[in-house]
TrEMBL record:
SUPFAM superfamilies: P-loop containing nucleoside triphosphate hydrolases (SSF52540). The keyword Iron-sulfur does not apply. InterPro entries: AAA+_ATPase, ABC_transp_ATP-bind, ABC_transporter-like_ATP-bd, ABC_transporter-like_CS, Nickel_NikE, P-loop_NTPase. One of its GO terms (molecular function) is ATP binding. It comes from Paenibacillus farraposensis. It comes from the Bacteria. PROSITE patterns: ABC_TRANSPORTER_1, ABC_TRANSPORTER_2. This is Nickel import ATP-binding protein NikE. Residues 4-253 form the ABC transporter domain. Keywords: ATP-binding, Ion transport, Nickel, Nickel transport, Nucleotide-binding, Transport.
Amino acid sequence: MRVLQVKEVTHSYGRRKWLGRSELRPPVLSGVSLTIESGFCLGLLGTSGAGKSTLGKVILGLEKPQKGQVLFQGQDIYHGSTQVRRELRRDMQVVFQDCYSAVNPRMTAGQIIGEPLDNYERLSVQEQKRTVENLLERVGLRPEDRNKFPHQFSGGQLQRINIARAIALKPKLIVLDESVSSLDMVHQMHILSLLGELKSSLGLSYLFITHDIRAAYTVCDGIAVMEQGELIEYCDDKDGIFESIHPAVQRLIASILPEHPADRLPS
């Protein structure tokens, strides 16, 4: 089943002033189209300024594009009723790069994870407590961690809490916007492993936005690459990315290739 369809999306940030003149800014996104099927993880790669995070905001309903459509579960997210948009928000969750700014420092881990449950479910106090504790265990933390505050966790642990919050409502799609880039290599690998496990056990679909081709290759099924607001490569099979002859893709690949050919991805 098709979970997400982006159709010919174009977006810019209006006009800019320069030396007393006003001129249109160049588009941040130019005719971008992609699809994500149920249970599929698509890695969206690109250097800084390529437009990938803006596309993520458009998909999440945070930036309405000038042209094109975003269909989530067959519904246009910018033209549905208030009730339709509310239900779509339930089924599409997000994990951001900065795990600290994504949470309220005055809330406990239990309150953070329970926030979407408060908004969409009618659980008793005990039911919510059990649900939160199960979610903590699912992401590799302890049930008693629900009473801790954000400053009492490491960055990797706090990102696990953000992931627990994202899966609390059993969404159909999670947008992960540079969700491991602020972590050290050890925590990155732990989070990537966790994302893989959750994808398999819960049947999740991901849009994994990153500049790191190695991270994308680790967790994703397919890979797409953006440059200057355009989608320049799209591979349903992630191994296909290594056959691309586009210079921007070649630069991404070169950034992770070790010196010895026998050590290069894919194995």
